[in-house]
Design brief:
alpha+beta, globular
Length: 223
C-alpha cells in the first residue's frame, strides 16, 4: 500500500481536470482533501483489514462543514473488467469489508442498511459513505479511471449541503457538466434521498428491476 498522491496519476489529479464534472470533487482536489491509498487487487480480500484501518484513520481526521474530505481506495488490478464484472467485484469487496466490519462495529444509525431503501448508505467503522466506483472500462467518461477505485464520500457532507440549501444547485451543475462531458445525461442518477443510492455506486446504467447483491449482517457479539 502507498499514497497515490506520490504518483503523477492520482485521483486528486483526475478530479482536478478542467472538464471533470463533479464540482465537489474538484473542490476537494484543489484543497488536497482526497486521502488516497493504493492496494493490490480488487478481487482479493488480502487488503480488507488494511482498508478498514485506513478508513478508520480517515474517520478521525478533523473536518467541518466548510472542509469536506473523501477517501479513495485504488487497486492495481484487474484492469480489464467489463462494467458488469466491475459491479460484481465492487459489491463483493464491499460485502467482504462489511462482514469484517460487523465483527466490531454497528451500522451507522443515521442511515438504513437495506440497499433497497431510499435512506441506504454504506457504512464502515460506524460511519456512512456514498460510494463512487471508477474503472478503466466505464461507459461514462466521468467514471473512467485507469485503475479500479472506490471513492468513499461521507454521507454527512451531503446532509450538510442539503441543510444549507446548497445541494440542489450543486447537483444541477454536476449533472449539466456530466452530460456535456459524456454526451448525454446519466440515466442512473436520482435525487438525493428519493431512491436507493446503491443503484449509482458502480456507475453502470442498471435496469428498473435491478437488485443490489449486498446483504447487511448483524454485529457479531463475542463472549
Amino acid at each position: 500500500m502507498f499514497d497515490a498522491r506520490d504518483t503523477n496519476d492520482s485521483i486528486t489529479q483526475f478530479a482536478g481536470r478542467a472538464e471533470f464534472p463533479c464540482v465537489a470533487a474538484k473542490s476537494l482536489s484543489n484543497r488536497n482533501h482526497i486521502t488516497e491509498r493504493v492496494y493490490s487487487d480488487l478481487l482479493d480480500m488480502e487488503n480488507d483489514y488494511e482498508i478498514l484501518n485506513d478508513v478508520e484513520r480517515f474517520n478521525t481526521m478533523p473536518r467541518d462543514s466548510f472542509s469536506f474530505r473523501s477517501f479513495a481506495a485504488i487497486f492495481q488490478a484487474p484492469l480489464n473488467l467489463s462494467e458488469v464484472e466491475f459491479e460484481t467485484a465492487m459489491w463483493n469487496r464491499l460485502q467482504s469489508l462489511h462482514d469484517l466490519d460487523a465483527e466490531t462495529h454497528e451500522w451507522d444509525r443515521k442511515v438504513s442498511c437495506d440497499p433497497s431503501s431510499p435512506n441506504f448508505s454504506f457504512s464502515l467503522r460506524g460511519t456512512a459513505f456514498y460510494i463512487i466506483g471508477l474503472h478503466p472500462n466505464a461507459s461514462r467518461l466521468s467514471r473512467r479511471y485507469h485503475r479500479p477505485a472506490l471513492i468513499f464520500n461521507l454521507h454527512d457532507q451531503f446532509e450538510i449541503l442539503r441543510r444549507q440549501g446548497r445541494y440542489p444547485r450543486m447537483r444541477d451543475v454536476i449533472r449539466k457538466r456530466d452530460a456535456a462531458m459524456c454526451g448525454l445525461p446519466n440515466p442512473s442518477l436520482q435525487n438525493f434521498g428519493e431512491a436507493s443510492e446503491a443503484r449509482q455506486y458502480s456507475g453502470r446504467a442498471v435496469r428498473e428491476d435491478w437488485r443490489c447483491p449486498f446483504q447487511a449482517r448483524p454485529r457479531r457479539r463475542h463472549p
